[in-house]
Design goal:
By secondary structure, the protein is α/β, with parallel strands linked by helices. The protein is built from six helices and seven strands.
Length: 198
């Protein structure tokens, strides 16, 4: 298998997930929403014909809903988001994958078809990126490790996507841009998502 999907998740602990959402909805609701996002993410990636590499934030549980039959499990390294993502990509490329994509677990609108489109896009593009409405991105894919994409970035800010595009331009790289989607960071994001689905 030459394609690998990296999935970054936070261990679902009360008070430690969706902290911005919790300010409006409370910690229990925030955990409930995050568990819902984890279920969605798990469902859409199971239909993909690729290897799945699940990276936990704090510990690898002895057992959970992510079956070892379907997911290789890892622990994210210490450091900021860029350092953790860079190491995850590095590990995958060291194992001889030639198409590697990373997603998080915050995008309820992400679909199996979009991730598949991203893998297909890597056949004739150096990179693929899925921009989020908040100025970040919900998906990043590459054919080779490019460390500069993870360095000198303002993580979790509205400037991240633009900074990453500047890297693509500087590298004179080809890239595929996927549709803009919404992450669920705030309670209003969640309410808006539910309204769109109703």
């Amino acid at each position: 298998m030459s394609e690998a999907l990296i999935v970054f998740v936070k261990n679902p602990e009360l008070g430690k997930v969706k902290t911005r959402l919790a300010k409006d909805a409370g910690e229990e609701k925030a955990l409930e929403v995050y568990l819902e996002l984890l279920r969605h993410t798990r469902e859409i990636v199971l239909d993909l014909d690729c290897d799945r590499r699940l990276h936990y934030s704090s510990e690898i549980p002895a057992s959970d809903d992510w079956s070892l039959s379907w997911f290789d499990k890892f622990l994210q390294v210490e450091g900021d988001l860029g350092q953790r993502m860079e190491r995850a990509f590095e590990q995958a490329f060291q194992e001889a994958y030639n198409k590697v994509i990373i997603i998080g677990s915050d995008c309820a609108d992400l679909s199996t078809a979009l991730i598949q489109e991203a893998f297909e896009g890597l056949a004739d593009h150096d990179f693929v990126i899925g921009p989020a409405k908040d100025g970040g991105y919900y998906l990043l894919g590459m054919q080779r490790l490019e460390r500069s994409l993870f360095q000198n970035k303002d993580w979790s800010t509205a400037s991240l996507y633009g900074q990453t595009l500047e890297d693509f331009e500087r590298l004179e790289a080809s890239y595929l841009q996927l549709p803009v989607l919404s992450d669920i960071d705030y309670y209003q994001d969640y309410l808006d998502h539910k309204a769109r689905r109703s």
